[in-house]
Design goal:
By secondary structure, this protein is an alpha+beta fold. It is built from eleven helices and 13 strands. β4 and β5 (86-89) form a beta hairpin. α10 packs across α11 (358-373). The structure holds alpha-D-galactopyranose. The site of alpha-D-galactopyranose (GLA) has 10 residues, from α5.
Length: 399
Amino acid sequence: MTLLSSSATPQLPRIADQAFNAFLNRFGHPPLWLSVAPGRVNLIGEHIDYNDGYVLPVAIDRYTAIAAAPSPDDSTHIVSHGTTDTIRTHDFQCIGQPHWAAYVLGPLLLCREQGLHPGPFTALIISDVPRGAGLSSSAALEVASATLAEVICDRSLGSIEKARLCQRAEHDYAHVPCGIMDQATSVAARANAALLLDCQAETWKTIPFGQSDVCLLIANTNVRHSLADGQYAKRRQQCDQALRAIGASSYRDIDLDALESATLDDIPYKRARHVLGEIARTREAAGALERADWVGLGQLMNESHHSLRDDYQVSCAELDKMASIAWNLGPTRGVFGSRMTGGGFGGCTVSLILSRESAAITQHLQNSYREETGIEAEIFVVEPSDGAQGIRCEPPQKS
Ligand code: GLA
């Protein structure tokens, strides 16, 4: 039985209806609250959000949705749709809970510090953001959880406060020292726009993008190299080390000349060269996007990949392969640019392509990548989408 037609939640993506119906089937009554938060893809500005840089992400039309209602007892019970994993808790503490609980309970615990105290509830989580693919499934879950707390408590955190809260949840409960990009995008993104996020000032502006003859194609290499785990924190340390050696406190205060005149070991030198180059490329890319200069933007994306591969060393053979298959097509066959996106060591590439060529390009990437690696890739077009939303579900009107 479907109580919620898509017209009942016109402002929410379709996955909200799926969450509503899955909740109804599982618990035998409809939910009272729904929250939805998107994943993201970063066009350019990689590994510089924690270095005071600029980033240029869009939220994608892949989401995590949570449906919830007051609990029948004094415990909170959260299920992950399609799995046997459940959280049952009285105090929202993560100890003894499944691994993903940190991304749900962490934000809820931090919401309490902001005066948001949701009472015990029953919830079901559903997501179509690919996991571990560099598309911010973690941030989508954190932001959907904080948004659920807002809608339950009927109080809004400010956008930047909510993004920071979710970032802190990832630091303190998931133990990943991430920057602000993913959470800020999942909170603040707008449909048909990219966000130019200044990670030093923690401010952003939107740049129209999406309703034109180009689109974004994601290619998931379907590999995830295990060395990814410690490498993120290590890159942060190396960047800080380079900055100290240069005698500066922010990458925004120095340029390549300052780097060249400092005495640095090879590794911190390369890390800093990536950061400075990527900050410059991202600012240029924002200008190219504003002018709809697709060739210029694509070229900057390609250069970003080279720098991430050679200087920052966070790519891998499969990402390099996927990017170079796309580069070989080039603008004449509809590919303006292509690069790894997200943390790296596996996951996805993002390509800026001509929309009318998307079927041919998808087929070519799929076949060539399979021939060269033996791996089946997942390839799809994404739409720049709105950030997180939450609603209280009104009971159906009696006629
Ligand atoms: C992960 C982090 C982000 C960012 C990217 C790399 O997605 O969560 O904060 O650092 O890696 O750009």
